[in-house]
Amino acid sequence: MATNFFAQYTVTFEPGEVIYQQGDTGSVMFVITDGTVELSKAKGNTKEPMAELGKGDFFGELSILESIPRPETAIALTACSMVVIHRGTFVKMLKANMEIAFRMMQKMSTKLRQAEQKIESLLGHLSSFENEVQKTRPHIAKPKEKKVIGKLVSLATNRVFILDNDDNLVGRYDPVTGIKPEVDLTYEDENRSVSRRHAIIFRKEGRFFVQEEIGVLNGTYVNGHKASPGGEQLEIQDQDTINVGMLAFKFYIVGDET
């Protein structure tokens, strides 16, 4: 990555300047060439610091890989300069130099491992807290169990995916944002053909529908009819065939309307 090549893409930020806000849309990532950047996530009215990045680190790459809102806020802690990389430029860089791809994979692997460790720690604390509450207040009634209203059965593996909400997100688990869809196809989708947020299967007035999420790369089909991203809702009937990315499922209605 030659310096003169990146000169035209370099931007600067003053201390305290917001680079982007959590929830913003974006199609660029940043590589820090000088300075320090803080990544934080909003928790109600409080801000939880996630990471402090310096020279050589990159962030915002999820907007290159998937069209999802920014999962965190990025703020310049000091005077910063960084390279802005658009999706098209990123693809050209990978084609020109595979070492860039390898180094990014190493960094992303580290981020993923750290995120998983944090999730495991939080789950451990939550479990301990729930046990303490149960000991001190054993009279608390257990929450009402969810009722299964439908299911998806994989035509390839016969795995069964339960629908127990009126709104069921279909996709893959995202360790960075912590979003776990109701229908988690992480282990079913070996080819990564399903987006993190791929589609919504929902029930309305006793009828079932599917709607594709915005930014999905591979389609969503019901009996061969394609759903429109964020637009037209396709009604689904008992034993219809639903295709999500490269996966195919048989849809079954379970039980009665409550």
CATH class of the largest domain: Mainly Beta
Oligomer: single chain
> Into which percent range does the helicity of residues fall?
10-25%
Globular, elongated, flat, extended or rod-shaped: what is the shape?
Answer: globular
The number of distinct helices, counting runs of at least 4 residues, comes to 4
Q: How are the strands ordered across the major sheet?
A: 10-9-19-18-15-16
Q: What's the CATH architecture of the largest domain?
A: Sandwich
Mean pLDDT across every amino acid position:
83
Fraction of residues in β-strands: 35-45%
- Uncertain segments are none
Predict the CATH topology of the largest domain. Jelly Rolls
Major beta sheet summary: 6 strands, antiparallel
Q: Please report the distance between the alpha carbons of the first and last residues.
A: 61 Å
Total beta strand runs: 19
Kindly describe this structure.
With 258 residues, the protein is of the alpha+beta class. 22% of the residues lie in helices and 35% in strands. It is built from four helices and 19 strands. The chain has helices at 3-6, 62-65, 87-96, 98-136; strands spanning 10-13, 18-20, 28-34, 37-43, 46-53, 58-59, 73-76, 80-86, 150-154, 160-163, 167-171, 183-184, 197-204, 207-212, 220-222, 225-226, 234-236, 241-244, 247-253. The protein has a six-stranded antiparallel β-sheet with strand order 10-9-19-18-15-16, with no helix packed on it. Strands 12-11-13-14-17 form a five-stranded mixed β-sheet, with no helix packed on it. It has a four-stranded antiparallel β-sheet with strand order 1-8-3-6. The longest helix has 39 residues, at 98-136. The protein is globular and about 60 Å long. The chain starts with a helix and ends in a 5-residue tail after the last strand.
